[in-house]
Design brief:
GO terms for molecular function: ATP binding; ATP hydrolysis activity; copper ion binding; P-type divalent copper transporter activity. With 294 residues, the chain is α/β, with parallel strands linked by helices. The chain has 13 helices and 13 strands. The chain is elongated. Bound molecules: adenosine-5'-diphosphate (ADP) and magnesium ion. Adenosine-5'-diphosphate binds next to α3, α5, β5, β6 and β7.
Length: 294
Protein backbone atom coordinates (compact mmCIF):
# COMPACT_ATOMS: atom_id res chain seq x y z
CA UNK A 1 0.00 0.00 0.00
CA UNK A 2 3.01 2.27 0.43
CA UNK A 3 3.30 3.74 -3.09
CA UNK A 4 -0.47 4.11 -3.33
CA UNK A 5 -0.69 5.92 0.01
CA UNK A 6 2.17 8.23 -0.94
CA UNK A 7 0.56 8.97 -4.27
CA UNK A 8 -2.75 9.70 -2.58
CA UNK A 9 -0.99 11.99 -0.10
CA UNK A 10 0.71 13.81 -2.95
CA UNK A 11 -2.68 14.37 -4.55
CA UNK A 12 -4.13 15.50 -1.24
CA UNK A 13 -1.20 17.91 -0.91
CA UNK A 14 -2.03 19.44 -4.28
CA UNK A 15 -5.58 20.02 -3.03
CA UNK A 16 -4.15 21.80 0.02
CA UNK A 17 -2.06 24.00 -2.25
CA UNK A 18 1.23 22.16 -1.70
CA UNK A 19 3.21 20.76 -4.62
CA UNK A 20 5.38 17.86 -3.51
CA UNK A 21 8.38 17.15 -5.75
CA UNK A 22 8.55 13.44 -4.93
CA UNK A 23 7.44 10.85 -2.36
CA UNK A 24 10.70 11.20 -0.37
CA UNK A 25 9.66 14.77 0.45
CA UNK A 26 6.86 13.47 2.69
CA UNK A 27 9.38 11.49 4.72
CA UNK A 28 11.57 14.62 5.20
CA UNK A 29 8.48 16.59 6.18
CA UNK A 30 7.54 14.04 8.81
CA UNK A 31 10.97 14.23 10.42
CA UNK A 32 11.33 18.03 10.40
CA UNK A 33 11.72 19.52 13.90
CA UNK A 34 12.95 23.01 13.00
CA UNK A 35 11.39 25.46 10.56
CA UNK A 36 13.62 28.31 9.40
CA UNK A 37 11.72 31.17 7.77
CA UNK A 38 12.82 34.05 5.58
CA UNK A 39 11.23 37.42 6.33
CA UNK A 40 10.76 39.63 3.28
CA UNK A 41 8.29 38.15 0.84
CA UNK A 42 7.76 35.05 2.97
CA UNK A 43 6.39 36.27 6.33
CA UNK A 44 5.64 39.67 4.81
CA UNK A 45 3.79 40.43 1.60
CA UNK A 46 6.91 41.68 -0.16
CA UNK A 47 4.90 44.60 -1.47
CA UNK A 48 7.08 47.28 0.01
CA UNK A 49 6.51 51.02 0.11
CA UNK A 50 8.78 53.97 0.70
CA UNK A 51 7.91 55.33 4.15
CA UNK A 52 10.57 58.01 4.82
CA UNK A 53 13.45 59.86 3.18
CA UNK A 54 16.22 61.53 5.21
CA UNK A 55 18.87 63.53 3.32
CA UNK A 56 22.14 64.78 4.77
CA UNK A 57 22.37 68.44 5.64
CA UNK A 58 24.26 69.77 2.67
CA UNK A 59 27.00 67.15 2.21
CA UNK A 60 25.98 66.45 -1.36
CA UNK A 61 23.98 69.63 -1.77
CA UNK A 62 21.13 67.81 -3.46
CA UNK A 63 17.49 68.17 -2.43
CA UNK A 64 15.43 65.17 -1.38
CA UNK A 65 13.56 64.68 -4.66
CA UNK A 66 16.83 64.78 -6.63
CA UNK A 67 18.42 62.07 -4.46
CA UNK A 68 15.24 60.01 -4.75
CA UNK A 69 15.18 60.44 -8.54
CA UNK A 70 18.78 59.16 -8.89
CA UNK A 71 18.25 56.28 -6.44
CA UNK A 72 14.96 55.41 -8.13
CA UNK A 73 16.63 55.27 -11.53
CA UNK A 74 19.07 52.60 -10.32
CA UNK A 75 16.51 50.71 -8.22
CA UNK A 76 14.20 50.63 -11.25
CA UNK A 77 16.52 47.95 -12.64
CA UNK A 78 16.33 45.82 -9.48
CA UNK A 79 13.90 42.92 -9.12
CA UNK A 80 13.97 43.16 -5.32
CA UNK A 81 10.81 44.40 -3.52
CA UNK A 82 12.93 47.24 -2.10
CA UNK A 83 13.96 48.26 -5.61
CA UNK A 84 10.39 48.22 -6.84
CA UNK A 85 9.24 50.35 -3.88
CA UNK A 86 11.95 52.98 -4.33
CA UNK A 87 11.48 53.17 -8.10
CA UNK A 88 7.69 53.46 -7.79
CA UNK A 89 7.96 56.30 -5.25
CA UNK A 90 10.56 58.09 -7.37
CA UNK A 91 8.44 57.81 -10.51
CA UNK A 92 5.40 59.08 -8.66
CA UNK A 93 7.19 62.10 -7.20
CA UNK A 94 9.71 62.92 -9.94
CA UNK A 95 8.19 61.63 -13.17
CA UNK A 96 10.18 59.69 -15.77
CA UNK A 97 13.43 58.19 -14.46
CA UNK A 98 16.75 58.71 -16.29
CA UNK A 99 18.65 55.77 -17.86
CA UNK A 100 21.38 53.86 -16.00
CA UNK A 101 24.83 52.74 -17.19
CA UNK A 102 26.75 49.85 -15.68
CA UNK A 103 23.94 48.59 -13.49
CA UNK A 104 24.98 45.94 -10.97
CA UNK A 105 22.97 44.16 -8.29
CA UNK A 106 24.53 42.30 -5.38
CA UNK A 107 22.16 39.82 -3.78
CA UNK A 108 21.53 40.67 -0.15
CA UNK A 109 23.36 44.00 -0.40
CA UNK A 110 21.87 46.36 -2.98
CA UNK A 111 22.39 48.00 -6.35
CA UNK A 112 24.71 50.42 -8.14
CA UNK A 113 25.03 52.21 -11.45
CA UNK A 114 25.87 55.48 -13.17
CA UNK A 115 23.09 58.03 -13.68
CA UNK A 116 23.65 61.37 -15.43
CA UNK A 117 27.39 61.00 -14.85
CA UNK A 118 27.06 60.31 -11.12
CA UNK A 119 27.90 57.02 -9.50
CA UNK A 120 24.87 55.95 -7.45
CA UNK A 121 24.62 53.16 -4.88
CA UNK A 122 21.58 52.06 -2.87
CA UNK A 123 22.69 49.51 -0.31
CA UNK A 124 22.28 47.98 3.12
CA UNK A 125 24.01 50.25 5.65
CA UNK A 126 26.48 47.68 6.99
CA UNK A 127 28.65 47.94 10.10
CA UNK A 128 31.60 50.08 8.95
CA UNK A 129 29.70 52.32 6.53
CA UNK A 130 26.87 52.79 9.04
CA UNK A 131 29.23 53.79 11.85
CA UNK A 132 30.84 56.53 9.71
CA UNK A 133 27.55 58.13 8.66
CA UNK A 134 26.59 61.69 9.62
CA UNK A 135 24.50 61.72 12.82
CA UNK A 136 21.17 62.51 11.14
CA UNK A 137 21.60 59.44 8.93
CA UNK A 138 22.65 57.26 11.87
CA UNK A 139 19.42 58.35 13.57
CA UNK A 140 17.42 57.61 10.40
CA UNK A 141 18.84 54.06 10.24
CA UNK A 142 17.94 53.48 13.89
CA UNK A 143 14.46 54.95 13.47
CA UNK A 144 13.77 52.72 10.46
CA UNK A 145 14.77 49.64 12.47
CA UNK A 146 12.65 50.67 15.47
CA UNK A 147 9.66 50.97 13.14
CA UNK A 148 10.36 47.51 11.72
CA UNK A 149 11.42 48.99 8.41
CA UNK A 150 14.44 48.41 6.20
CA UNK A 151 16.96 51.22 5.88
CA UNK A 152 18.58 51.81 2.48
CA UNK A 153 21.70 53.98 2.31
CA UNK A 154 22.00 56.09 -0.85
CA UNK A 155 25.54 57.07 -1.85
CA UNK A 156 26.31 59.58 -4.61
CA UNK A 157 29.87 59.53 -5.94
CA UNK A 158 30.93 57.60 -2.87
CA UNK A 159 29.39 59.99 -0.32
CA UNK A 160 26.43 59.22 1.90
CA UNK A 161 23.49 61.29 0.65
CA UNK A 162 20.33 59.86 2.20
CA UNK A 163 18.67 57.05 4.10
CA UNK A 164 15.41 55.66 2.76
CA UNK A 165 13.06 53.69 5.00
CA UNK A 166 11.12 50.97 3.21
CA UNK A 167 8.53 48.72 4.81
CA UNK A 168 5.89 46.16 4.10
CA UNK A 169 3.29 44.34 6.15
CA UNK A 170 3.02 40.82 7.53
CA UNK A 171 1.00 38.35 5.49
CA UNK A 172 -2.33 37.75 7.17
CA UNK A 173 -1.60 34.06 7.78
CA UNK A 174 1.91 34.40 9.22
CA UNK A 175 0.99 34.69 12.90
CA UNK A 176 -1.33 31.70 12.83
CA UNK A 177 1.08 29.56 10.82
CA UNK A 178 3.99 30.13 13.20
CA UNK A 179 1.88 29.53 16.28
CA UNK A 180 0.48 26.31 14.80
CA UNK A 181 3.97 25.09 13.91
CA UNK A 182 5.16 25.61 17.48
CA UNK A 183 1.96 23.97 18.70
CA UNK A 184 3.02 20.89 16.72
CA UNK A 185 6.33 20.84 18.57
CA UNK A 186 8.47 22.48 15.89
CA UNK A 187 10.98 25.21 16.66
CA UNK A 188 10.67 28.32 14.50
CA UNK A 189 13.71 30.39 13.49
CA UNK A 190 13.81 33.72 11.64
CA UNK A 191 16.61 34.01 9.08
CA UNK A 192 16.76 37.28 7.17
CA UNK A 193 19.06 39.45 5.13
CA UNK A 194 17.42 42.46 6.70
CA UNK A 195 18.95 44.40 9.60
CA UNK A 196 18.49 43.74 13.34
CA UNK A 197 15.71 46.32 13.86
CA UNK A 198 13.32 45.02 11.23
CA UNK A 199 14.19 41.42 12.14
CA UNK A 200 13.51 41.93 15.86
CA UNK A 201 10.22 43.74 15.18
CA UNK A 202 8.87 40.90 13.06
CA UNK A 203 10.18 38.19 15.41
CA UNK A 204 8.53 39.87 18.41
CA UNK A 205 5.22 40.15 16.60
CA UNK A 206 5.26 36.47 15.60
CA UNK A 207 6.69 35.06 18.83
CA UNK A 208 9.89 33.78 17.19
CA UNK A 209 12.70 33.41 19.72
CA UNK A 210 15.68 32.53 17.57
CA UNK A 211 16.66 35.30 15.11
CA UNK A 212 19.52 35.60 12.61
CA UNK A 213 19.64 39.00 10.87
CA UNK A 214 21.90 40.66 8.28
CA UNK A 215 22.51 37.24 6.73
CA UNK A 216 24.00 37.03 3.24
CA UNK A 217 22.82 34.13 1.06
CA UNK A 218 25.97 32.19 2.07
CA UNK A 219 25.42 32.96 5.74
CA UNK A 220 21.84 31.70 5.44
CA UNK A 221 23.17 28.36 4.20
CA UNK A 222 25.73 28.33 7.03
CA UNK A 223 23.03 28.82 9.67
CA UNK A 224 21.15 25.87 8.20
CA UNK A 225 24.32 23.76 8.23
CA UNK A 226 24.95 24.68 11.89
CA UNK A 227 21.43 23.65 12.89
CA UNK A 228 21.79 20.35 11.05
CA UNK A 229 25.19 19.74 12.63
CA UNK A 230 23.46 20.22 16.00
CA UNK A 231 21.16 17.33 15.12
CA UNK A 232 18.17 19.26 13.84
CA UNK A 233 16.09 18.23 10.86
CA UNK A 234 15.55 21.52 9.11
CA UNK A 235 12.97 22.86 6.71
CA UNK A 236 13.70 26.27 5.18
CA UNK A 237 10.87 28.40 3.84
CA UNK A 238 11.81 31.20 1.44
CA UNK A 239 10.91 33.04 -1.71
CA UNK A 240 13.97 34.83 -3.01
CA UNK A 241 17.05 34.24 -5.15
CA UNK A 242 18.87 34.98 -1.90
CA UNK A 243 17.23 31.96 -0.24
CA UNK A 244 18.08 29.40 -2.92
CA UNK A 245 21.35 28.19 -1.34
CA UNK A 246 19.73 27.81 2.07
CA UNK A 247 16.76 25.95 0.55
CA UNK A 248 19.09 23.57 -1.24
CA UNK A 249 21.15 22.88 1.90
CA UNK A 250 18.15 22.14 4.14
CA UNK A 251 16.70 18.70 4.79
CA UNK A 252 13.67 20.14 3.05
CA UNK A 253 13.38 23.34 1.00
CA UNK A 254 9.99 25.02 0.82
CA UNK A 255 9.41 27.78 -1.73
CA UNK A 256 6.51 30.13 -2.28
CA UNK A 257 5.10 29.72 -5.77
CA UNK A 258 5.05 33.51 -5.99
CA UNK A 259 8.82 33.47 -5.36
CA UNK A 260 11.79 33.41 -7.71
CA UNK A 261 12.53 30.54 -10.09
CA UNK A 262 15.80 29.94 -8.24
CA UNK A 263 13.95 29.34 -4.98
CA UNK A 264 11.34 27.07 -6.58
CA UNK A 265 14.07 25.11 -8.38
CA UNK A 266 15.88 24.48 -5.09
CA UNK A 267 12.78 23.38 -3.18
CA UNK A 268 11.19 19.99 -2.59
CA UNK A 269 7.89 21.62 -1.72
CA UNK A 270 6.16 24.57 -3.36
CA UNK A 271 3.34 26.47 -1.69
CA UNK A 272 0.91 27.29 -4.47
CA UNK A 273 -1.31 29.70 -2.58
CA UNK A 274 1.72 31.63 -1.42
CA UNK A 275 0.59 31.09 2.13
CA UNK A 276 3.02 29.86 4.72
CA UNK A 277 0.16 28.23 6.61
CA UNK A 278 0.15 25.53 3.93
CA UNK A 279 3.41 24.27 5.52
CA UNK A 280 1.44 23.39 8.64
CA UNK A 281 -1.07 21.42 6.57
CA UNK A 282 1.77 19.68 4.74
CA UNK A 283 3.48 18.59 7.97
CA UNK A 284 0.20 17.22 9.32
CA UNK A 285 -0.45 15.40 6.07
CA UNK A 286 3.02 13.82 6.11
CA UNK A 287 2.68 12.77 9.74
CA UNK A 288 -0.74 11.21 9.12
CA UNK A 289 0.23 9.48 5.88
CA UNK A 290 3.45 7.95 7.13
CA UNK A 291 1.91 6.97 10.45
CA UNK A 292 -0.64 4.82 8.61
CA UNK A 293 2.00 3.22 6.38
CA UNK A 294 4.29 1.86 9.05
P1 LIG B 1 15.37 38.92 3.05
O1 LIG B 1 16.25 37.84 3.56
O2 LIG B 1 14.65 39.59 4.18
O3 LIG B 1 14.43 38.44 1.98
P2 LIG B 1 17.34 40.02 1.15
O4 LIG B 1 18.41 39.00 1.36
O5 LIG B 1 16.61 39.98 -0.13
O6 LIG B 1 16.31 40.06 2.41
O7 LIG B 1 18.01 41.43 1.28
C1 LIG B 1 18.85 41.70 2.34
C2 LIG B 1 19.13 43.15 2.48
O8 LIG B 1 19.90 43.62 1.38
C3 LIG B 1 17.88 44.00 2.47
O9 LIG B 1 17.27 44.07 3.74
C4 LIG B 1 18.47 45.33 2.06
O10 LIG B 1 19.07 45.96 3.18
C5 LIG B 1 19.55 44.95 1.06
N1 LIG B 1 19.08 45.00 -0.32
C6 LIG B 1 18.78 43.97 -1.14
N2 LIG B 1 18.37 44.39 -2.34
C7 LIG B 1 18.37 45.74 -2.30
C8 LIG B 1 18.03 46.79 -3.23
N3 LIG B 1 17.59 46.53 -4.46
N4 LIG B 1 18.18 48.06 -2.80
C9 LIG B 1 18.62 48.34 -1.58
N5 LIG B 1 18.94 47.42 -0.66
C10 LIG B 1 18.82 46.14 -1.00
MG1 LIG C 1 12.70 36.97 0.85
Amino acid sequence: ATPTALLAATGRGAELGVLVRGPEVLESLRRVDTVVVDKTGTLTTGRMELAAVTVTDGLTGLPEHEVLRLAGAVEHRSEHPIGRAVAAAARERCGALPPVDGFAATTGLGVSGTVEGRSVRAVRPDGAAAAALPPELVRAVAAAGDAGRTAVLVELDGRAAAVLAVGDTLRSGSWRALHRLRGMGLETVLLTGDGPGAARAVAAELGIERVHDSASPERKAEVVAELRAAGRTVAVVGDGVNDAVALASADLGVALASGSDAAIGAAGLTLVRGEIEAVVDAVRLARQTLATIR
